[in-house]
Each structure stands twice: as structure tokens, then as C-alpha cells.
Amino acid sequence: MKYLIVYAHPEPASLSGHLRDRAVEALTEAGHEVIVSDLYAMKWKAVADRDDFLGGQAVEGPLDYTRASRDAFVEGMQAPDVVEEQRKLLWADVVVLQFPLWWYGMPAILKGWVDRVYAYGFAYGIGPHGGGFWGKRFGEGTLEGRRGMVAMTVGGRMAHYGPRGVNGTMDDLLWPVQHGVLFYPGFAVVPPAVYYEVGRADAAAVETMAQDYVRRLLTVQEVDPIPLRAQNGGDYNDVQVLRAEHGEAAGHALHQRDPVYVSNTWLGIEGDYTPRHIAPTSRDALEE
Ligand SMILES: Cc1cc2nc3c(=O)[nH]c(=O)nc-3n(C[C@H](O)[C@H](O)[C@H](O)COP(=O)(O)OP(=O)(O)OC[C@H]3O[C@@H](n4cnc5c(N)ncnc54)[C@H](O)[C@@H]3O)c2cc1C
């Protein structure tokens, strides 16, 4: 298989760098092809602006980025670094976004990769938008048929991101990435690899995380994706609102079919401050 790891960490000698290296080594040994887009090493341009379009300085009047993106995509006038990343995405069977959690989301350099690479006509604006149909997206689109996964290190405790944790649930934090960035252009999203409280990880814990990451990557085609509801799969009505028969509860879990996947079911134990790095999930509960 072909793996693209889009990797965002400024320090190669970090834990994130170690996990990436272990992933590349294991995948290559198993006979897979791997490309890493190491955004810091590439000095990736994170800001979306006129320079993303060849001749962009000549665009007359105020810049309408969406329109300019569409025109450049159609006319072959996109910046070469953007074209190259789109080529890698089309090449890959599996795309992994690997990053440390920074302020509840991706580091800016990775967000900038998404903003620039996900062009109009490539990642969005596919198919008609109007009447009862609003584009091929959320389960359909250019990247359909591929698997997408988040791999992330986290400073905070596992319990902070569990069902009642102070930070909100990990699934809510990952919603913009998993539903917005991966599911939107068509990826089947597999459960994320999330490693908590990594600043307190000893060598044995780091080894456990590395083995977990490698296992997830090697079995990525075998695991059931998160059962996100396809926009055009019948669960939504003609204004893309979930039909009443699918429940009335609020929250992101509404947009999954049963059984809903919960990536962190850890409630914490008062007085127990043991660092824990890999969270139990709803699927563990089902298997018991
Ligand atoms: C701007 C910013 C915003 C942040 N926002 C959040 C937030 O919203 N929520 C939150 O929970 N956290 C947040 N954090 C913390 C952040 O998530 C962690 O610092 C990050 O995930 C740690 O990953 P790392 O790869 O940098 O690990 P490192 O700091 O490099 O390493 C962690 C531990 O792993 C071990 N290790 C390091 N390198 C290696 C190696 N090469 N080989 C083997 N073991 C190694 C060491 O024991 C080290 O202490 C933020 C941090 C920053 C800088």
C-alpha cells in the first residue's frame, strides 16, 4: 500500500519525530511505500494568499481566495508546492495527519497545508450545489476510496479528554479534523492514534506508543472506519439536516451510525495520578 504521512513538528528529535521514524521503518520493512511530507523541514508556506496562484499578483481587485483557487485549479495556475501535495494525496491509499495537539488543534503549519492544498475543485466544490443536492462531500469526493487517520501526541491527562473531562471530549476536539478535513473530501476515517500525557512517558511507555502506532498503521485496512454518516447516504434530508428518526440528541455523535465510536472513555479515578497514555475506546467495551 501507499502511505502518505503529513507530519508537523519542528523538532526531529521529539517524541513525534521518533514515532514518525518508527512508522516509516515498520511500513517500509513490511513492503509498503511511504512518503512523508515533513512540513517544517520543507519550510511549508502556511499562509494562504495571492502567491498561491501563478500570476496571483496580477489578480485584479480584491482577492477572493475561493474563486481564485477554483480558477487556478481549472487553469493549471496553482503554486507548484500545492500541486505536488495534491499529487501525493492522489497517489496514496492511506493518509495520516501526524501532529502534536496545539491549542486544541493542529499546529498552524498543518492547518495552512490544508487551507492551501485543499483547493476548490480538488477537495471541495465537487458536484452541483443547489436544490436538494449540496455537493459530493462527507463520504464522497476526490479522495473517496482512501483511508485517513489522525496520529497525535497530547500534553494533558487522558481523563481531561474523556466523557466528563475538563477539556471536552477528544472526539469533539478532533471533529474539525476528522469530519471536516478527512471525511469531507471523501476519506474513510479510521480511529485516531492519540497518546496522552506524553511529557511523563518513560522509555517503556514510549515503546508501547510506538508499537501501538505501528500496529494501527499496518492494520489500517482491516479496522472498521468510524461510522460517520454520508451526506448523500439517505440519513439527511434535502437541506442536509439529519432526519428526525435518527434521534434528537445534540452533539457530534449524532452524525455517526450505531454503534457510535468514542475514542476515549476514560473517566479518571480520584486520587490516582498515574500517567496513562493510550485511552480505552467504546470498541474495547463492546469486545468485553
Ligand atoms: C503551542 C502549544 C500548544 C499546546 N496546546 C495543548 C493543548 O491544547 N492541549 C494539550 O493537552 N497539550 C497542549 N500542548 C502540549 C503538546 O500537546 C505536547 O507538548 C506535545 O504533544 C508533545 O509531543 P512532542 O512530540 O513534542 O513530545 P516531546 O516533548 O518531544 O516528548 C515527550 C516525552 O517523550 C519522550 N521523548 C521525547 N523524544 C523522544 C525520542 N526521540 N525518543 C524516545 N522518547 C522521546 C520524553 O520522555 C519526553 O519527555 C501544547 C504545546 C504547545 C507547544
State the main characteristics.
12% strand, alpha/beta, Rossmann fold, two-stranded antiparallel sheet, six-stranded parallel β-sheet, binds flavin-adenine dinucleotide, 288 residues, 7 helices
Helix/sheet category: alpha/beta
Shape estimate: globular
Oligomer: single chain
The poorly predicted ranges are none
What is the overall number of helices? 7
- State the CATH architecture: 3-Layer(aba) Sandwich
The radius of gyration computed from the alpha-carbon positions, rounded to a whole number of angstroms, is: 20 Å
Whole-Å distance between the termini? 32 Å
Give the proportion of residues in helices: 25-40%
Rounded mean pLDDT is 96
Describe, in plain words, how this protein is organized in 3D:
This protein is α/β, with parallel strands linked by helices. The chain has one domain (2-287): Flavodoxin domain (Rossmann fold), CATH 3.40.50. It is 29% helix and 12% strand. The protein is built from 7 helices and 8 strands, in the order E-H-E-H-H-E-H-E-E-E-H-E-E-H-H. It has helices at residues 15-29, 65-75, 80-91, 108-117, 170-183, 203-218, 282-287; strands spanning 2-7, 33-38, 94-100, 129-130, 133-134, 147-153, 188-189, 193-195. The strands form 2 sheets. Strands 1, 2, 3, 6, 7 and 8 form a 6-stranded parallel beta sheet that branches. Strands 4-5 form a two-stranded antiparallel ribbon. Helix 5 (170-183) links the parallel strand 6 (147-153) and strand 7. It is globular and about 60 Å long. The two termini are 32 Å apart. The relative contact order is 0.14. Residues 9, 13-18, 100-104, 153-156, 198-199, 201, 206 line the site of flavin-adenine dinucleotide (FAD).
